[in-house]
Amino acid sequence: MTAEERPDEADEDQGPLSIFDRDDEHDPSSEETGAEQAPRRRRGRRLLLWTLAVLLVLFGAGFGALVWTADHYASSVARIPNAFPTGTAAQPTAVPHTGQTFLLVGLDARADRPTTGKDAKAPAWQLGAQRSDTMMLMHISADRKSVSVVSIPRDTWVPVPGHGNAKINAAYSWGGPALMVQTVQDLTHIRIDHVAVIDWNGFRALTDAVGGVDITIPRTIEAKGDAREWLAGTHHMDGAEALLYVRERHGLPNGDLDRTKRQQNFLRALMLRTMNSGTLSSPGKLTGLLGTVGDVVSVDDRLSNSDLYDLAWSLRAVRPDGVHFMNAPFGGFDSIDGQSVVLMDTGAAGLLWDAMRADRMDDYLAQHRTSTDTLGDNVD
Fold first, then answer.
1. Helix (H, G, I), strand (E, B), or coil: what is residue 196?
2. Which residues touch 139 (CB under 8 Å, ≥6 apart)?
3. Rg of the Cα trace of the chain?
4. Looking at the DSSP assignment, which residues form a beta bridge with residue 235?
5. I need a surface site. Which of 208, 267, 294, 295 has the fewest CB within 10 A?
């Protein structure tokens, strides 16, 4: 985007950037005052701002779209060096005009100290210390009108380069973000453009920053083993309870598959909470949320401050019904080497990966709307 297209950045002395102060067109003959126009602009920006919050949820793009002072908050986000494979494992060639794909990673750090964000007290990766508990591929269409989020269950049995076949979440434990990216790229043949990582400490803080979320559980889930009972009805969850909700699998009929749907359901609830609470239209609330995101999220060091801002601005046409959640196609459960694993339906998954790679997700979704892999309204 050129300086001519973004006049707000042409003169550094004009003060802090605010996307609330920007219109696509300016009509000098308008009789509305700035005070009358501001509420209209803010309402028009809510969907734009939320969209990016969903995109990197847990995982960090919210700071790009929810910019009050753009460069300040973008700079507060910790960067991950060496997040991509190199040498013979270099990434697939970028295909022009096919959008962007992010790998979103939630870490089970097995420690109380934060490992992501600018306030991290321990490394985001240390050999054997963390596994990726959550993995999502998030594809943004080239026309910036739709977003597709595909969860890959952590127990999915895949080839991990240099280690043979294993559960996909072991890749992060063995080789950090670079091996995780390489594993996912080898599996899908999709180029990963950027990576965003958050740990469970950050998840709790991010949930509490928006005042908690409302989650509806359609039927009572009985306690099983270490899993708690969940009563049917709507629950207002703070960060601690939301963390129990998204991490649970033993009390669910389909285990890891149902857990990924819970994680997606949480993101949907977070979207509604953020929009309905006025967070995106209140400078004070927005500043608090941005500060929290910057504290707990890490992204790859290829994602510059201007990249964040430009991506956010380009997504102004996206609406909540343009954000789609689904699981990678399920091929069954199995036991391999004494481990309970999830198998992927490689044939069906190939169609999905082809559609994402070619930026044809709208066509794919039109043909697979009734798929059990697509997130529905009732989530256990």
1. strand
2. 99, 100, 101, 102, 147, 148, 149, 150, 356, 359, 361
3. 21
4. 215
5. 208
